[in-house]
Protein backbone atom coordinates (compact mmCIF):
# COMPACT_ATOMS: atom_id res chain seq x y z
CA UNK A 1 0.00 0.00 0.00
CA UNK A 2 1.03 3.64 -0.46
CA UNK A 3 2.51 5.67 2.36
CA UNK A 4 -0.33 6.84 4.60
CA UNK A 5 0.94 10.42 4.37
CA UNK A 6 0.72 10.50 0.58
CA UNK A 7 -2.38 12.39 -0.54
CA UNK A 8 -4.31 12.38 -3.78
CA UNK A 9 -6.86 15.01 -4.80
CA UNK A 10 -10.16 13.64 -6.09
CA UNK A 11 -13.29 15.47 -7.30
CA UNK A 12 -16.26 15.09 -4.94
CA UNK A 13 -18.47 13.35 -7.51
CA UNK A 14 -15.79 10.76 -8.30
CA UNK A 15 -15.02 10.12 -4.64
CA UNK A 16 -18.68 9.70 -3.76
CA UNK A 17 -19.26 7.31 -6.68
CA UNK A 18 -16.21 5.29 -5.65
CA UNK A 19 -17.43 5.20 -2.04
CA UNK A 20 -20.82 3.88 -3.18
CA UNK A 21 -19.19 1.20 -5.34
CA UNK A 22 -16.84 0.18 -2.51
CA UNK A 23 -19.65 -0.31 0.00
CA UNK A 24 -21.67 -2.18 -2.63
CA UNK A 25 -18.60 -4.39 -3.03
CA UNK A 26 -18.85 -5.10 0.70
CA UNK A 27 -22.43 -6.27 0.24
CA UNK A 28 -24.62 -3.18 0.73
CA UNK A 29 -27.51 -2.43 -1.63
CA UNK A 30 -26.88 0.69 -3.77
CA UNK A 31 -29.37 2.86 -1.89
CA UNK A 32 -27.79 1.98 1.46
CA UNK A 33 -24.25 2.43 0.14
CA UNK A 34 -25.28 5.89 -1.11
CA UNK A 35 -26.41 6.91 2.39
CA UNK A 36 -23.14 5.72 3.93
CA UNK A 37 -21.01 7.46 1.29
CA UNK A 38 -22.91 10.73 1.73
CA UNK A 39 -22.04 10.97 5.43
CA UNK A 40 -18.41 9.89 5.03
CA UNK A 41 -17.71 12.13 2.02
CA UNK A 42 -19.13 15.11 3.92
CA UNK A 43 -16.70 14.26 6.72
CA UNK A 44 -13.83 14.29 4.20
CA UNK A 45 -15.09 17.58 2.75
CA UNK A 46 -14.95 19.07 6.26
CA UNK A 47 -11.39 17.81 6.64
CA UNK A 48 -12.38 15.18 9.24
CA UNK A 49 -10.38 12.51 7.44
CA UNK A 50 -10.16 10.14 10.44
CA UNK A 51 -13.98 9.88 10.30
CA UNK A 52 -14.39 9.99 6.52
CA UNK A 53 -14.02 7.29 3.88
CA UNK A 54 -10.93 6.02 5.76
CA UNK A 55 -13.54 4.32 7.96
CA UNK A 56 -14.08 1.78 5.19
CA UNK A 57 -11.15 -0.08 6.74
CA UNK A 58 -12.81 -0.70 10.12
CA UNK A 59 -16.36 -0.87 8.72
CA UNK A 60 -15.19 -3.21 5.97
CA UNK A 61 -13.41 -5.59 8.32
CA UNK A 62 -16.53 -5.92 10.44
CA UNK A 63 -18.79 -6.35 7.40
CA UNK A 64 -16.54 -9.15 6.17
CA UNK A 65 -16.70 -11.07 9.47
CA UNK A 66 -20.48 -10.44 9.75
CA UNK A 67 -20.02 -8.18 12.77
CA UNK A 68 -22.10 -5.62 10.84
CA UNK A 69 -25.17 -6.62 8.82
CA UNK A 70 -24.67 -5.59 5.17
CA UNK A 71 -28.37 -6.13 4.41
CA UNK A 72 -29.92 -4.36 7.38
CA UNK A 73 -33.72 -4.16 7.45
CA UNK A 74 -34.14 -0.87 9.31
CA UNK A 75 -37.50 -0.36 11.03
CA UNK A 76 -39.11 2.90 12.18
CA UNK A 77 -41.87 3.08 14.80
CA UNK A 78 -43.90 6.10 15.92
CA UNK A 79 -44.99 5.68 19.58
CA UNK A 80 -46.06 9.35 19.67
CA UNK A 81 -46.50 12.07 17.01
CA UNK A 82 -43.07 13.67 17.57
CA UNK A 83 -41.13 10.50 18.52
CA UNK A 84 -39.54 7.97 16.17
CA UNK A 85 -37.84 4.75 17.31
CA UNK A 86 -35.34 3.29 14.84
CA UNK A 87 -34.13 -0.30 14.97
CA UNK A 88 -30.93 -0.34 12.91
CA UNK A 89 -30.78 -4.17 12.60
CA UNK A 90 -27.01 -3.94 13.21
CA UNK A 91 -26.50 -1.97 9.99
CA UNK A 92 -23.56 0.27 9.11
CA UNK A 93 -23.69 3.28 11.46
CA UNK A 94 -24.05 6.08 8.87
CA UNK A 95 -26.90 4.16 7.22
CA UNK A 96 -28.77 3.95 10.53
CA UNK A 97 -27.89 7.59 11.20
CA UNK A 98 -29.38 8.74 7.90
CA UNK A 99 -32.59 6.78 8.51
CA UNK A 100 -32.84 8.35 11.99
CA UNK A 101 -32.15 11.85 10.64
CA UNK A 102 -34.87 11.52 8.01
CA UNK A 103 -37.31 10.15 10.58
CA UNK A 104 -36.59 13.06 12.95
CA UNK A 105 -37.01 15.54 10.06
CA UNK A 106 -40.39 14.06 9.16
CA UNK A 107 -41.54 14.25 12.79
CA UNK A 108 -40.32 17.84 13.17
CA UNK A 109 -41.89 18.91 9.88
CA UNK A 110 -45.26 17.69 11.10
CA UNK A 111 -45.03 18.74 14.76
CA UNK A 112 -42.48 21.57 14.88
CA UNK A 113 -40.14 19.38 16.92
CA UNK A 114 -39.11 15.76 16.47
CA UNK A 115 -36.81 13.25 18.09
CA UNK A 116 -35.49 9.98 16.71
CA UNK A 117 -33.92 7.41 19.03
CA UNK A 118 -31.88 4.72 17.27
CA UNK A 119 -30.66 1.36 18.59
CA UNK A 120 -28.86 -1.68 17.17
CA UNK A 121 -26.38 0.55 15.35
CA UNK A 122 -22.62 0.98 14.99
CA UNK A 123 -20.13 3.87 14.74
CA UNK A 124 -22.03 6.47 12.68
CA UNK A 125 -19.22 8.85 11.70
CA UNK A 126 -18.90 12.44 12.92
CA UNK A 127 -21.96 14.46 13.90
CA UNK A 128 -21.34 17.58 11.81
CA UNK A 129 -22.47 16.01 8.47
CA UNK A 130 -25.87 15.25 10.01
CA UNK A 131 -25.97 18.74 11.53
CA UNK A 132 -25.26 20.25 8.11
CA UNK A 133 -27.93 18.18 6.35
CA UNK A 134 -30.45 19.20 9.03
CA UNK A 135 -29.44 22.87 8.80
CA UNK A 136 -29.70 22.89 5.01
CA UNK A 137 -33.28 21.66 5.42
CA UNK A 138 -34.08 24.38 7.99
CA UNK A 139 -33.75 22.39 11.23
CA UNK A 140 -31.83 23.26 14.37
CA UNK A 141 -30.40 20.10 15.90
CA UNK A 142 -28.96 18.40 18.95
CA UNK A 143 -27.45 15.04 17.94
CA UNK A 144 -25.53 12.50 20.01
CA UNK A 145 -24.22 8.95 20.05
CA UNK A 146 -22.76 6.70 22.69
CA UNK A 147 -19.43 4.93 22.22
CA UNK A 148 -17.06 2.22 23.44
CA UNK A 149 -15.79 2.93 26.95
CA UNK A 150 -12.46 4.81 27.17
CA UNK A 151 -13.10 7.14 30.15
CA UNK A 152 -13.16 6.21 33.84
CA UNK A 153 -16.08 7.43 35.97
CA UNK A 154 -15.02 10.63 37.77
CA UNK A 155 -12.73 9.43 40.56
CA UNK A 156 -12.82 5.81 39.30
CA UNK A 157 -10.05 3.49 38.11
CA UNK A 158 -11.47 1.59 35.14
CA UNK A 159 -13.09 2.50 31.80
CA UNK A 160 -16.87 2.53 32.23
CA UNK A 161 -17.85 5.68 30.26
CA UNK A 162 -17.78 6.21 26.50
CA UNK A 163 -16.17 9.16 24.74
CA UNK A 164 -19.67 9.94 23.50
CA UNK A 165 -19.92 12.79 20.98
CA UNK A 166 -22.60 15.46 20.89
CA UNK A 167 -23.28 18.11 18.29
CA UNK A 168 -25.41 21.22 17.95
CA UNK A 169 -26.49 22.93 14.75
CA UNK A 170 -28.47 26.10 14.00
CA UNK A 171 -29.22 26.97 10.37
CA UNK A 172 -28.45 30.27 8.72
CA UNK A 173 -30.42 30.58 5.48
CA UNK A 174 -27.49 32.65 4.15
CA UNK A 175 -25.44 29.44 4.42
CA UNK A 176 -23.20 30.28 7.40
CA UNK A 177 -24.61 27.65 9.74
CA UNK A 178 -23.53 27.21 13.34
CA UNK A 179 -22.12 23.67 13.65
CA UNK A 180 -20.54 22.36 16.86
CA UNK A 181 -19.30 18.75 16.99
CA UNK A 182 -17.40 17.59 20.08
CA UNK A 183 -16.36 14.45 21.89
CA UNK A 184 -16.07 14.24 25.67
CA UNK A 185 -12.30 13.81 26.10
CA UNK A 186 -9.84 16.70 26.39
CA UNK A 187 -7.81 15.21 23.51
CA UNK A 188 -7.91 12.15 21.27
CA UNK A 189 -5.66 9.21 22.13
CA UNK A 190 -3.78 9.90 18.88
CA UNK A 191 -2.32 13.08 20.39
CA UNK A 192 -0.99 11.07 23.34
CA UNK A 193 0.48 8.47 20.97
CA UNK A 194 2.20 11.28 19.04
CA UNK A 195 3.71 12.62 22.28
CA UNK A 196 5.05 9.16 23.10
CA UNK A 197 6.67 8.89 19.65
CA UNK A 198 8.18 12.37 20.04
CA UNK A 199 9.42 11.62 23.55
CA UNK A 200 7.61 14.61 25.05
CA UNK A 201 5.51 15.02 28.21
CA UNK A 202 1.80 15.79 28.06
CA UNK A 203 -0.32 18.19 30.15
CA UNK A 204 -1.70 16.47 33.26
CA UNK A 205 -5.21 17.45 32.15
CA UNK A 206 -5.19 15.05 29.18
CA UNK A 207 -5.30 11.62 30.83
CA UNK A 208 -4.81 9.57 33.98
CA UNK A 209 -2.61 6.56 34.65
CA UNK A 210 -4.04 3.09 35.31
CA UNK A 211 -4.72 4.09 38.95
CA UNK A 212 -6.88 7.04 37.85
CA UNK A 213 -4.29 9.68 38.84
CA UNK A 214 -3.34 12.57 36.49
CA UNK A 215 -0.09 11.94 34.59
CA UNK A 216 2.30 13.79 32.27
CA UNK A 217 3.83 10.51 31.01
CA UNK A 218 2.28 9.55 27.64
CA UNK A 219 3.06 5.84 28.15
CA UNK A 220 1.25 5.79 31.52
CA UNK A 221 -1.58 7.77 29.90
CA UNK A 222 -2.00 5.18 27.15
CA UNK A 223 -2.22 2.49 29.83
CA UNK A 224 -4.77 4.61 31.71
CA UNK A 225 -7.84 6.66 30.77
CA UNK A 226 -8.77 9.80 28.85
CA UNK A 227 -9.80 12.80 30.94
CA UNK A 228 -13.24 14.27 30.21
CA UNK A 229 -13.51 17.93 29.22
CA UNK A 230 -14.26 20.20 32.17
CA UNK A 231 -13.52 17.53 34.78
CA UNK A 232 -16.62 16.33 36.59
CA UNK A 233 -18.84 18.50 34.36
CA UNK A 234 -17.64 16.69 31.23
CA UNK A 235 -18.19 13.38 33.01
CA UNK A 236 -21.79 14.37 33.69
CA UNK A 237 -22.27 15.51 30.08
CA UNK A 238 -20.90 12.18 28.79
CA UNK A 239 -23.42 10.35 30.98
CA UNK A 240 -26.26 12.55 29.70
CA UNK A 241 -25.39 11.71 26.08
CA UNK A 242 -25.32 8.00 26.92
CA UNK A 243 -28.67 8.23 28.73
CA UNK A 244 -30.32 9.79 25.66
CA UNK A 245 -28.45 7.79 22.99
CA UNK A 246 -28.15 4.46 24.77
CA UNK A 247 -30.54 4.04 27.66
CA UNK A 248 -33.66 5.80 26.33
CA UNK A 249 -33.25 4.31 22.84
CA UNK A 250 -33.12 0.77 24.30
CA UNK A 251 -29.58 0.34 22.94
CA UNK A 252 -26.55 -0.77 24.97
CA UNK A 253 -24.97 1.76 27.35
CA UNK A 254 -21.76 2.24 29.36
CA UNK A 255 -19.97 -1.14 29.68
CA UNK A 256 -22.84 -2.92 27.88
CA UNK A 257 -21.48 -1.49 24.60
CA UNK A 258 -19.28 -4.03 22.81
CA UNK A 259 -15.83 -2.92 21.66
CA UNK A 260 -15.53 -3.27 17.88
CA UNK A 261 -11.78 -3.72 18.35
CA UNK A 262 -12.04 -6.54 20.91
CA UNK A 263 -15.13 -8.21 19.40
CA UNK A 264 -15.32 -7.20 15.71
CA UNK A 265 -17.70 -10.06 14.87
CA UNK A 266 -20.28 -9.14 17.52
CA UNK A 267 -23.00 -6.45 17.30
CA UNK A 268 -22.13 -3.29 19.25
CA UNK A 269 -25.74 -2.17 19.72
CA UNK A 270 -24.76 1.50 19.77
CA UNK A 271 -27.49 4.13 20.14
CA UNK A 272 -27.98 7.62 18.71
CA UNK A 273 -30.45 10.47 19.20
CA UNK A 274 -31.52 13.22 16.80
CA UNK A 275 -33.51 16.11 18.30
CA UNK A 276 -34.68 18.63 15.68
CA UNK A 277 -36.56 21.94 15.74
CA UNK A 278 -38.21 23.24 12.56
CA UNK A 279 -36.99 26.86 12.54
CA UNK A 280 -39.51 27.75 9.85
CA UNK A 281 -42.19 27.59 12.56
CA UNK A 282 -40.38 30.41 14.42
CA UNK A 283 -40.08 33.02 11.69
CA UNK A 284 -39.19 33.69 8.06
CA UNK A 285 -35.84 32.66 6.53
CA UNK A 286 -34.89 36.35 6.34
CA UNK A 287 -35.67 36.81 10.06
CA UNK A 288 -33.43 33.88 10.95
CA UNK A 289 -30.63 34.91 8.58
CA UNK A 290 -30.59 38.46 10.00
CA UNK A 291 -30.38 37.19 13.57
CA UNK A 292 -27.75 34.53 12.79
CA UNK A 293 -25.60 37.06 10.90
CA UNK A 294 -25.87 39.52 13.80
CA UNK A 295 -25.00 36.75 16.27
CA UNK A 296 -21.84 35.91 14.30
CA UNK A 297 -20.94 39.58 13.84
CA UNK A 298 -20.98 40.15 17.61
CA UNK A 299 -18.47 37.31 18.02
CA UNK A 300 -16.32 38.38 15.05
CA UNK A 301 -16.19 41.92 16.45
CA UNK A 302 -14.14 40.87 19.47
CA UNK A 303 -10.52 42.05 18.98
CA UNK A 304 -8.39 38.88 18.74
CA UNK A 305 -5.67 38.20 21.28
CA UNK A 306 -3.58 36.93 18.35
CA UNK A 307 -4.00 39.06 15.21
CA UNK A 308 -3.36 36.01 13.00
CA UNK A 309 -6.26 34.13 14.59
CA UNK A 310 -9.51 36.12 14.38
CA UNK A 311 -12.50 35.06 16.46
CA UNK A 312 -14.73 32.50 14.74
CA UNK A 313 -17.89 30.61 15.58
CA UNK A 314 -18.05 26.80 15.43
CA UNK A 315 -18.47 25.46 11.91
CA UNK A 316 -16.71 28.24 10.02
CA UNK A 317 -13.48 26.31 9.47
CA UNK A 318 -15.31 23.19 8.29
CA UNK A 319 -17.66 25.07 5.96
CA UNK A 320 -14.74 27.00 4.42
CA UNK A 321 -12.82 23.77 3.92
CA UNK A 322 -15.87 22.19 2.32
CA UNK A 323 -16.25 25.10 -0.12
CA UNK A 324 -12.56 24.92 -1.05
CA UNK A 325 -12.54 21.16 -1.55
CA UNK A 326 -15.77 21.26 -3.57
CA UNK A 327 -14.00 23.67 -5.89
CA UNK A 328 -10.52 22.08 -5.98
CA UNK A 329 -11.10 18.42 -5.10
CA UNK A 330 -10.89 16.44 -1.86
CA UNK A 331 -7.46 15.56 -0.45
CA UNK A 332 -7.54 11.92 0.63
CA UNK A 333 -4.87 9.45 1.71
CA UNK A 334 -3.56 7.37 -1.18
CA UNK A 335 -3.91 4.16 0.84
CA UNK A 336 -7.59 4.95 1.49
CA UNK A 337 -8.10 5.40 -2.26
CA UNK A 338 -6.40 2.06 -2.89
CA UNK A 339 -8.65 0.34 -0.36
CA UNK A 340 -11.78 1.93 -1.87
CA UNK A 341 -10.74 0.83 -5.35
CA UNK A 342 -10.05 -2.69 -4.12
CA UNK A 343 -13.51 -3.05 -2.55
CA UNK A 344 -15.14 -1.40 -5.57
CA UNK A 345 -13.60 -4.10 -7.75
TrEMBL record:
Lineage, highest ranks first: Bacteria, Pseudomonadati, Pseudomonadota, Betaproteobacteria, Burkholderiales
Family of this protein: Belongs to the LDH2/MDH2 oxidoreductase family.
Origin superkingdom: Bacteria
Keyword vocabulary terms for this entry: Oxidoreductase
GO molecular function: ureidoglycolate dehydrogenase activity
Enzyme Commission identifier(s): 1.1.1.154
Gene3D superfamilies, per database record: 1.10.1530.10, Hypothetical oxidoreductase yiak, domain 2 (3.30.1370.60)
Keyword Membrane attributed: no
Species of origin: Bordetella ansorpii
Protein known as: Malate dehydrogenase
Major enzyme class: oxidoreductase
Pfam families: Ldh_2 (PF02615)
